[in-house]
Structures are given as C-alpha cells and as structure tokens.
Design brief:
Elements: E1 2-5, H1 31-44, H2 48-55, H3 62-69, E2 77-78, H4 79-82, H5 86-91, H6 98-107, E3 108-112, E4 116-119, E5 123-124, H7 141-154, E6 160-162, H8 166-169, E7 178-185, E8 191-193, H9 198-211, H10 219-228, E9 233-235, E10 240-246
Parallel strand pairs: 1-3, 1-6, 6-7, 7-10
Antiparallel strand pairs: 2-5, 3-4, 7-8, 9-10
Helix pairs in contact: 6-9
C-alpha cells in the first residue's frame, strides 16, 4: 500500500543532513524536472519582487524567498520531519514506535510541487513552491510534471490511497487510486463538506494506514480496515470513500 500525502506550506527549519542530493531521492526518473525547478527557484530568488509574485508571498515572507536562494547548500531532513501543519500534527510520526515508523517509511509518500513525489525518508531542505505557483517563463507545474510523474504513479503495482489535495492531485492523477472525501453530519442528518479540519481527519487516517499491520489490497478491504478502527466510512462504488464525522468534530 502506498499512501500519498499533500505537502505543507509550513516546514520545519534546520536539519542535520547534508545538502540536497537530487540523485539520492526516490524515483530518480523525476530528476530532470526536479533539477530544472530547483535552478528556476534559486535564480528567481535573486529578484525578490518577482519571487513574491510567482510564489504568492508578501514582503513579510521574504525569509521564504531567502530559503529558496539557499536550496543547494541548506541542511536537509527527512520529508516526514520537514513538513509541518495540521495533517502532519495528526500523523504525529514522532510518537510512533520503531516498528510503526518503519512501516510508515515504506508506505508514505508526499506529492510535491518541487520534487514531484518523494518518500517520507527522502532528505530535503525547506523550500517554498506550491502547486498553484506560476513561475515566470515556465509552463504550469501541471504541464511540467504530468509527462514524467504520470507514468511513475501509473506504474505503482500496489493499492494507492491518494490523500493529496486537489491542486496536487491535478499534477498527475493516479489511475484506480482510492480517494477520501470528508463530510460532517449534523444530528438531523444534513451533511456538509469539511474544510477547516479536513487535513486533521486525513492525518488521522494516514496515521492508521501508515502503522497498521494490515495490507488491504482493494477499496473494500480498505473500508473494512478503517471501519474496524472506528472511522465511519461509506463506499458508494468505484474507488471513492467518504469519511463522515459528527459536525461537532469537524471544527
């Protein structure tokens, strides 16, 4: 089972690893696109105004531009320790046992605007680039990534659970992947899409899938695993699952 996570805009500072080595990252067939984007970000950082516009930043976020300027020399950390925020708080990898972390390292991957797809163990620096960023003089990130990332994802020969957000999933969809929508349900039965805590719920699901000793091979078995763990999951057909949470837990 491969669980695809979205990245986060917020990232932990520092790291104790050597500077970025693109050749050491998983899925080396993506190295060409990674290298081109890395060069673009470093060069773009030389023009702060242009960088702010391309990356959707304000002047108060010039530290993010400076971070991109140092991408080649900055220390690295495992991706699962680099990304922070609501989903990664719920995933809570630091509380995992050694056996659980080993399973998480095998099963979790992150969809990234800069790296395309990386394992949780891949060492990366902090950076700023979102799926919706528009880099001057370059095609859209979707146009850049789909020709190489699409075949990589299509070649995965195990169950894929795609928890990426829409913008990252659009970089390269995964044929046959299981997806998860989160809905809140009021006492009267009315339902609404969960927005604020969507990431937290997906983080809890990701933690279960990362640490379980089970190996579901299809959407039906996956739903059964989630339900045994206490999640209210519905399956109306196909490969889409719906996680239903009480309205009181959706905030």
């Amino acid at each position: 089972m491969l669980v695809l996570l979205p990245p986060s805009e917020t990232k932990a500072l520092g790291g104790d690893g050597a500077p970025l080595d693109l050749a050491a990252l998983s899925w080396p067939e993506l190295t060409g696109v990674r290298a081109g984007l890395l060069d673009t970000l470093v060069e773009l950082a030389g023009d702060r105004a242009a960088a702010r516009t391309a990356l959707g930043l304000s002047e108060r976020q010039d530290d993010e531009v400076a971070r991109n300027a140092g991408l080649r020399s900055a220390p690295t950390a495992p991706a699962l320790e680099r990304y922070t925020g609501v989903l990664y708080d719920a995933l809570d990898i630091r509380s995992m046992t050694r056996a659980q972390r080993a399973r998480a390292d095998r099963r979790l991957a992150v969809g990234s605007a800069l790296f395309g797809l990386i394992r949780g163990t891949d060492r990366i620096p902090g950076y700023r680039l979102s799926a919706g960023s528009a880099l001057p003089g370059r095609p859209t990130l979707r146009a850049l990534w789909r020709p190489s990332l699409g075949p990589v994802l299509a070649a995965v020969d195990e169950l894929v659970v795609d928890l990426r957000s829409g913008a990252y999933a659009a970089l390269a969809p995964v044929p046959g992947a299981v997806t998860l929508d989160v809905l809140s349900e009021r006492p009267g039965g009315t339902r609404a899409v969960v927005s604020h805590s969507n990431k937290a719920h997906k983080g809890r699901v990701a933690r279960l899938l990362a640490t379980t000793t089970g190996e579901p091979g299809d959407v039906v078995r996956l739903r059964a695993l989630l339900r045994r763990a206490g999640f209210h999951v519905e399956h109306a057909g196909g490969t889409a699952l719906t996680l239903v949470v009480p309205a009181a837990a959706a905030n």
